[in-house]
Amino acid sequence: MLVPPLRRTFVPLLMFAAAVSPAASAAEGSRPNILFIYADDHSPKLLSCYEGAYELAHTPNIDRLAESGIRFAAAYLGSWCMPSRASLLTGLHPFSIESMRMTGSNPRSAYDPGQCRFWPATLRENGYQTAQIGKWHTGDDAGWGRDWDYQRVWNRPRYPENAGRYFGPQMIESNGEAAMVEGYSTDNYTRWAEEYIRGDGRDADRPWYLWLCYGAIHTPTIPAPRHRGLLADRTVALPPGIFAPRPGKPAYLDSTQAWTSDGGGGALFRDGKLTHTAWMHSIHECLMAVDEGVGALVRALEETGQRENTLVIYTTDQGFANGEHGLRQKVAPYETSYASPFIASWPGTVPPERTVPHTVNAPDIVATFLALAGTDQPWAMPGRDFTSLLLDPDGASWDRPTLYLHTGQIYGSDVAEALRKKSGSTTHAGVPLYAALRDGAWKYVRYFRRPDLEELYDLAADPDELANLATDPDKRPTLERLRGLWIEEMEKAGADFLDHLPELP
């Protein structure tokens, strides 16, 4: 049963050598195809295969994918859309990604390809065909012909006037040629990915990597017409912590409070119109098309004889809180607003019906993909290859913490500069900048500009993160241990601004 160019000097790659060796044996012989399915704005709670799932969750195809492989406790990929994608394209944390920048209002953004290189180009150089379909949100240069052999992308930064059309019609760049495409975007992306798997635009003599980026279920969260209203008669309970007060929780949650009581046991969004129940109906209905898409893609792999040589990953760019902690957004360091589901399936190689309590981050995923492809890392990356967990989830030793962070809209040396000057942006989406650490069931959060603000949670005893234990005298030894581990992981990741952080009490 399922339970639910670098500018910095990194720690030498030799320290990660032990983690790479299992992948080398896995990659001997036939290198796997990699289908990386990447949805938008939902936490593990929207998948019915996860413990603690919402009562409306019903994702039969994604559940079957999980049953055929491994379900991880969570992945931490980024605090919002752009940094999540930037980390997954570079294998780096945002504070190490040079030249990435916002160039105006979101989603206008840019980068210098000479400084900010994307690792799919390395796969191309080593025999893989690389493909990307769906949402693009990382500078207006989508990299076709340099990083990608095949591309059909909705390039939001290049066409900002079309950037709000998450569900269509969309300006699509097909191998560099742009045209407006009608239809429901989730279904379009699935169809194009299925056509690629079946051979359209694909070189049958090369292994392939396909990054399929759904825009669903990002706002405006419009379900497909065939799914709209299917849940209209279902009731929804409010999550714990949706309303203040929240003793011991950070004060910024008062300013990000998105919901008010409707006086009758329900909640209204701050606009006074959207009910919590209607919102929950829309996100679950919107995810139905993604779930159907996962089923269609797995069938395509099976029918083309590629299933047993294809690693399929399902995850999201980050989570999204739907009332928890009073939020209706991503960015905050809590499981529901930051953590992504992470499911890995590879029949015959990854054992079925397994769950692991472990977590991974974006650099870990890139390190693992490169190792499985038998390809050296093109630059130093802080990620840890978790192939051993894929091959032997029950027996592999994995006691490493997972680092994740929120640097808002700033990247690279701009992060250190902002902290050194103690000026510039200190929040994004109302949330102060921070780095956090997941170590087993413990979570530690340290805010960069607030020495008086730390958070400590025991997720085993308190999965909703309602009780901040950072000031509990009995938990002081745990707090001190995690503070030290936080420093170690930040140093390993190449953070060069730790001397600019205020001292903790």
Produce the secondary structure layout.
Blueprint: H1 17-27, E1 33-39, H2 60-67, E2 70-76, H3 81-90, E3 101-102, E4 109-110, H4 120-125, E5 129-136, E6 150-155, E7 170-174, E8 177-181, H5 185-197, E9 208-213, H6 252-255, E10 259-261, E11 267-269, H7 276-303, E12 310-316, H8 335-338, E13 340-345, E14 354-361, H9 362-372, H10 387-391, E15 402-406, H11 413-421, E16 427-428, E17 431-432, E18 434-439, E19 442-447, E20 454-458, H12 476-492
Parallel strand pairs: 1-9, 1-12, 2-14, 5-6, 5-9
Antiparallel strand pairs: 2-13, 3-4, 6-7, 7-8, 10-11, 12-13, 15-18, 16-17, 18-19, 19-20
Helix pairs in contact: 1-9, 2-7, 3-9, 5-7
What does it look like?
The protein is of the alpha/beta class and 505 residues long. The protein folds into 2 domains: 330 residues, 3-Layer(aba) Sandwich (Alkaline Phosphatase, subunit A), CATH 3.40.720; 97 residues, Arylsulfatase, C-terminal domain (2-Layer Sandwich), CATH 3.30.1120. Helix content is 25%, strand content 20%. It has 12 helices and 20 strands. The strands form 5 sheets. The chain has a 10-stranded mixed β-sheet, with helices on both faces. Strands 15-18-19-20 form a 4-stranded antiparallel β-sheet, covered by helices on one side. The radius of gyration is 21 Å and the shape is globular. It starts with 16 loop residues before the first helix and ends in a 13-residue tail after the last helix. The relative contact order is 0.18. The N terminus is likely disordered.
